[in-house]
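Pilot study result, target chain (749 residues):
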Amino acid sequence: MMPTADNGTLSAPTDQANPAASAAAASFAALLGKLDYLGAADIESIRQAYRFADEAHLGQLRKNGDPYITHPIAVAAQCAEWKLDAQALMAALMHDAIEDCGVTKQELVERFGAPVAELVDGLTKLEKLEFDTREQNQAESFRKMLLAMAKDVRVILIKLADRTHNMRTMGDMPRSKWQRISSETLEIYAPIAHRLGLNFTYRELQDLAFRFLHPWRYEVLAKALNKSRTRRRDLIARVQREVEAEFVRHGMAVRIVGREKTLYSVYRKMDSKHLSFSQVTDIYGFRIVVPELNDCYTGLGILHQLYKPLPGKFRDYVAIPKVNGYQSLHTTLIGPFGTNIEFQLRTHAMDVVAESGVAAHWLYKASEPGSDMSQRLGTQWLQSLLDIQQETHDASEFWDHIKIDLFPDAVYVFTPKSKIMALPRGATVMDFAYAIHSDVGNHTVSARINGEQRPLRTELTNGDVVEVVTADNAEPNPAWLSFVKTGRARSKIRHYLKTVAHEKSQDLGQRMLSQALRSEGISTLPAEDGSHAATWEKLLRFTGNRSRDELLSDIGMGKRIAGMVAKKLAVLLSETGLKPDALLISTERYASGLDESVSQGVVTLDGSEGMSVQYAPCCKPIPGDRIVGYLGRGEGLVVHSEDCPVSKRLMLRDSERFLEVEWADEPVRSFETTVVVTVTNGKGVLARVATAIAAAEADITHVDMGDEPAQTATDIRFTVAVRDRQHLADVLRSLKRTTSVIKAQRFKP
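Predicted structure:
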């Protein structure tokens, strides 16, 4: 007895030789036979939509000569298989009406109501998408499609039904289009079907795309699979008989269905693992549908008593479902003659969800009114698309964020309160933190995995218990972008960095423009409203900025020089009657020896400036050093030591971009600098040096011992965080008193 292949694999090409037969199969009468789950009023509405579509497409033919209306009927029939509501079926019948027949959206609203018109309009926008090779256009198309499905998942369900029928009849299309449409199906539509749990559609789209993308490979594999089927018929029949008898003996009523791997999945396994066809051992398997959830585990015990399980091949997706809602127990057993056979055990409800995914919501509504057990399927991911869209307006960036989510190979981890969270394989601690909440991610400082302190970039594995530690003053680090894996984490980090960088640079820009304006004799920066609104408008036209905030941000980021903007602003203010104060000009420009509270001509730094101020990595200035500020182009304010060779070269080339800076009396954080320690090599010397630094209450943030083989005397470079020059002197004294240390000094470029 041969198992039935219920995976959507094509057993024979679509019958295109007989258009009349195709038309009959796709007639409205055939569709009516699938609408028994709907009421009479709904069926009449669908009939009206059919008549409207039939009239609109009158005279149009498909490539094989069939009336065009056969295509919308076939799409609606697929939607009826998923038990979609009447509105979705009406939209499926009319999905090409706006695009191909000149029907307006307003006309659909008047005849069939706004919800149906919105669905048809959403589908029309998808039809217009051209997935060409230009990356930006392609990314924009993806974005529109994914957002359309996020707003109403019925849009993408109808689109997937449309694509499935088009793929089934691809043989009628010119061969020149096979490559593009099949690649698009394999790369975009099949993964979306999988992400939404539409397993049957996912597998069929893969096989159809494979068939037209690689026709020769498809035919060779199909022949090999047919031969294998013939050879193993007796073996499969024996296994099915023995399994059925065993369940009967235990008094358990089950439904046993044969399962065969799709041609594409066989091909992909051969290609990725470099196997021959004969080496692929899990082509055949069985699905066992049981009455109740507990019967899944009872059935597993029965199977494991009948055949020996293969170690490491058991997966429990019932207790921990896949991210698309899929639930089943998977086990691989060693059958007769040492053949590996996979078994899946699930309840009827799980089986519906496994094959129909997000569409199971309508299936349940049809069979069990009031049931919403699958309504949550896919909704978290769909909502995350809208969240990412709100923070990402660049189409390519949006596509980068969600690309990883279309191909989920999940890892399951636990919160300290034993809540299970599913993340893509390769996800890190930071992905976990942002999956909990964006505020948790933004303020994460450290993490414990299974009770042990671990770095934030640590990749998570199945079963890890993850606990993140947060601090109110912590901020996202740009370096996190190099290792996070989920689109949510990446978009949240980028959004925060852009927002905070803008705010910090705006604040710095305001301080710098105010300072420059004082040098022009104007004591305060005028407000944007009231009598000076027109002045700001003229200034923005001069600078080319859209708003005052954008101008201040550009000054803070070094894109505009504060002095030049201040000169123009002073001229504009003088036109309104506000004259410069000569005393203030002389005070600002020539009173360097006067009290600082009078001058106010210096930018004061305390370490709280954030990303708008960078401390140069070449000289690593610390409080107590004489410093200068360089307004880099687009980099914000870069602070160098006064004697830094880099700043001296910049001074010669770009002196107008330097401004006066000074340290605050009490900086709010520590600053990094580099210390070079020359040591006599020996056992435990690194530990002693590290202990000496710790004894001086300094933190070590990096150690560099170089690549050269160890000599009798070796230089070790430590990057240490200190409060100021006095603290650094304490560190150096502590080092010099340490055994084995020959010399300790601050590194200067």
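One observation from the pilot: Residues 1-25, 131-136, 363-378, 591-601 have pLDDT under 50 and may be disordered. A full batch analysis is planned for the follow-on phase.
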